[in-house]
């Protein structure tokens, strides 16, 4: 899932000051799971904002959609949007942009920092697992991502800085390539990383689009 | 004097500057590079040395700049943000300055997908605006971007690019203002073909007081053929080639097209010489360096002033 953190309160406060009616829009999917932007967080943020501004100065509304990255859920706001001068989105960056696209005449402000694609290790504890580089090598690396988990994103590690299974940047950071070696050795698959991995195709360096086969004709008719 | 470069001295003395451009070779062909430079000696005040232009690998700009210097032409070391992070940039700036390079042009750089290594990872650790600011900080404060003191700071005359033709037009002069605020000392523009637009842009820059703070050198590119004009109009992003230019080139005998191209360039230079807020011109005679002396002669910018 996508993991986000709420922005510092003062930053949020500065963005919305100057508006009279602001709708805080939560998202019920990833950011709700990682406790950053679901309905509970919308409630907490609005309470803090009301305290900071006083209820008379700015009226804060609250709506939490199932998903802000899906147009059909955004449509639920169509009838309410005229009541507000600005929107404060607690979704990930994708959701915020889609909301802004749906209502291009309204200022839309982010209330969270979208941090990474990661996993849930325990309540309130998330770890990055994927950089969405667009060229997955997990088959070769025993299911451990060298782009994300190696601080240098090496493809032919471990580098000389590996320190008894730890990364040179920190003793708290495992060396990804040490782990890759361990896992492949246990599976008897070390031959996977003997060959030199050639320079990578960093196709994530330009805006990307995915159209699943079978839907190409439909997308063409939509003209987007 | 910020750097004491020849270009800076010429501009400060109020002379109309005339700069040129050299694309380094796609290989270690020093002779070819020296030949290009030889055509420009005594003809231009300074030559831009491009940095992996259009994202194609070429001899590095600082190395070609040294060869340019040996050939008697002051170089303008170009640096794009695409290929290096801030550490590499600062170390290249120190190295270039240590070898006597005093002008630098700070650019974002074309995206890597246009070049011969489209799979590469673009760096863009800084953008052109931030690069300008970094060079200024190194020069004026004697500090690295990270804050540490520099033992002998590089005295660089800071150049930046402007494209007065890209949309939104109204914003173009504001982007110029940002580059001036960031620390640009001189500006070279995208190739000018639409005179009406550049007049308006310079007028806006004059009105905002920008031309008192920065030297503006519009870019001049002589058209070699109708095909080149059409290509630039249709295929090169951010290029504004009015139909009149194409019609004018089409209107002359086929053998005279290149000459007509030079004629147009000379007329532009004439107009810029008299335009308030313009400090010189930058001639980008793409792979036509041998024609530069003729163009300079016909445009009446020779002999170059000694300062």
TrEMBL record, chain A:
<dbReference type="GO" id="GO:0008270">
    <property type="term" value="F:zinc ion binding"/>
</dbReference>
<feature type="domain" description="Methylene-tetrahydrofolate reductase C-terminal-like">
    <location>
        <begin position="109"/>
        <end position="203"/>
    </location>
</feature>
<protein>
    <submittedName>
        <fullName>Zinc-finger protein</fullName>
    </submittedName>
</protein>
<keyword id="KW-0863">Zinc-finger</keyword>
<dbReference type="Pfam" id="PF12225">
    <property type="entry name" value="DUF5981"/>
</dbReference>
<keyword id="KW-0862">Zinc</keyword>
<keyword id="KW-0479">Metal-binding</keyword>
<dbReference type="InterPro" id="IPR022026">
    <property type="entry name" value="DUF5981"/>
</dbReference>
TrEMBL record, chain B:
<keyword id="KW-0560">Oxidoreductase</keyword>
<dbReference type="Pfam" id="PF02219">
    <property type="entry name" value="MTHFR"/>
</dbReference>
<dbReference type="InterPro" id="IPR029041">
    <property type="entry name" value="FAD-linked_oxidoreductase-like"/>
</dbReference>
<keyword id="KW-0274">FAD</keyword>
<comment type="similarity">
    <text>Belongs to the methylenetetrahydrofolate reductase family.</text>
</comment>
<comment type="pathway">
    <text>Amino-acid biosynthesis; L-methionine biosynthesis via de novo pathway.</text>
</comment>
<comment type="pathway">
    <text>One-carbon metabolism; tetrahydrofolate interconversion.</text>
</comment>
<dbReference type="InterPro" id="IPR003171">
    <property type="entry name" value="Mehydrof_redctse-like"/>
</dbReference>
<dbReference type="GO" id="GO:0071949">
    <property type="term" value="F:FAD binding"/>
</dbReference>
<dbReference type="GO" id="GO:0009086">
    <property type="term" value="P:methionine biosynthetic process"/>
</dbReference>
<protein>
    <recommendedName>
        <fullName>Methylenetetrahydrofolate reductase</fullName>
    </recommendedName>
</protein>
<dbReference type="GO" id="GO:0106312">
    <property type="term" value="F:methylenetetrahydrofolate reductase (NADH) activity"/>
</dbReference>
<keyword id="KW-0285">Flavoprotein</keyword>
<dbReference type="GO" id="GO:0005829">
    <property type="term" value="C:cytosol"/>
</dbReference>
<dbReference type="GO" id="GO:0035999">
    <property type="term" value="P:tetrahydrofolate interconversion"/>
</dbReference>
């Amino acid at each position: 899932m996508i993991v986000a953190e709420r922005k510092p309160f003062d930053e949020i406060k500065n963005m919305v000051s100057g508006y009279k009616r602001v709708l805080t829009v939560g998202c019920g999917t990833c950011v709700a799971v990682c406790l950053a932007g679901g309905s509970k967080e919308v409630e907490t943020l609005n309470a803090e904002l009301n305290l900071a501004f006083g209820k008379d100065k700015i009226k804060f509304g609250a709506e939490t959609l199932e998903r802000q990255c899906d147009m059909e859920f955004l449509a639920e706001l169509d009838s309410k949007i005229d009541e507000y001068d600005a929107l404060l989105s607690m979704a990930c960056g994708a959701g915020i942009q889609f909301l802004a696209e749906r209502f291009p005449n309204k200022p839309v402000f982010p209330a969270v920092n979208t941090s990474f694609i990661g996993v849930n290790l325990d309540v309130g504890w998330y770890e990055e697992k994927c950089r969405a580089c667009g060229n997955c090598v997990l088959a070769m690396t025993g299911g451990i991502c060298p782009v994300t988990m190696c601080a240098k994103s090496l493809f032919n590690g471990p580098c000389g800085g590996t320190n008894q299974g730890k990364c040179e940047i920190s003793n708290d950071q495992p060396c990804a390539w040490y782990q890759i070696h361990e896992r492949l050795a246990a599976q008897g698959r070390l031959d996977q990383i003997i060959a030199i991995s050639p320079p990578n195709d960093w196709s994530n360096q330009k805006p990307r689009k995915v159209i699943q086969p079978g839907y190409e004709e439909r997308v063409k008719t939509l003209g987007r | 004097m910020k750097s004491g470069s020849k270009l800076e001295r010429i501009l400060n003395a109020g002379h109309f500057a005339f700069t040129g451009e050299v694309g380094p070779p796609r290989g270690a062909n020093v002779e070819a590079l020296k030949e290009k430079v030889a055509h420009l000696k005594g003809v231009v005040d300074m030559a831009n040395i491009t940095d992996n232009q259009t994202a194609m690998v070429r001899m590095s700009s600082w190395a070609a700049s040294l060869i340019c210097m040996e050939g008697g032409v002051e170089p303008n070391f170009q640096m794009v943000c695409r290929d290096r992070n801030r550490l590499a940039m600062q170390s290249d700036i120190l190295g270039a300055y240590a070898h006597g390079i005093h002008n630098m042009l700070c650019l974002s750089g074309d995206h890597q997908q246009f070049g011969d290594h489209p799979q590469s990872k673009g760096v863009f650790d800084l953008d052109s605006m931030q690069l300008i600011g970094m060079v200024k900080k190194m020069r004026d404060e004697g500090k690295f971007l990270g804050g540490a003191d520099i033992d002998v700071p590089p005295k660089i005359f800071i150049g930046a690019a402007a494209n007065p033709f890209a949309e939104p037009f109204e914003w173009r002069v504001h982007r110029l203002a940002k580059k001036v605020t960031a620390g640009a000392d001189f500006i070279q523009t995208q190739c000018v073909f639409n005179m009406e637009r550049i007049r308006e842009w310079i007028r806006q820059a004059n009105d905002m007081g920008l031309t008192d703070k920065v030297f503006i050198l519009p870019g001049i590119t002589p058209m070699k053929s109708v095909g080149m004009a059409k290509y630039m109009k249709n295929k090169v992003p951010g290029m504004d080639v009015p139909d009149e230019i194409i019609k004018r080139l089409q209107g002359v005998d086929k053998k005279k097209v290149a000459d007509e191209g030079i004629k147009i360039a000379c007329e532009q230079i004439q107009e810029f010489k008299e335009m308030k807020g313009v400090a010189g011109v930058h001639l980008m005679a793409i792979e036509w360096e041998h024609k530069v002396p003729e163009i300079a002669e016909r445009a009446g910018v020779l002999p170059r002033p000694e300062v």
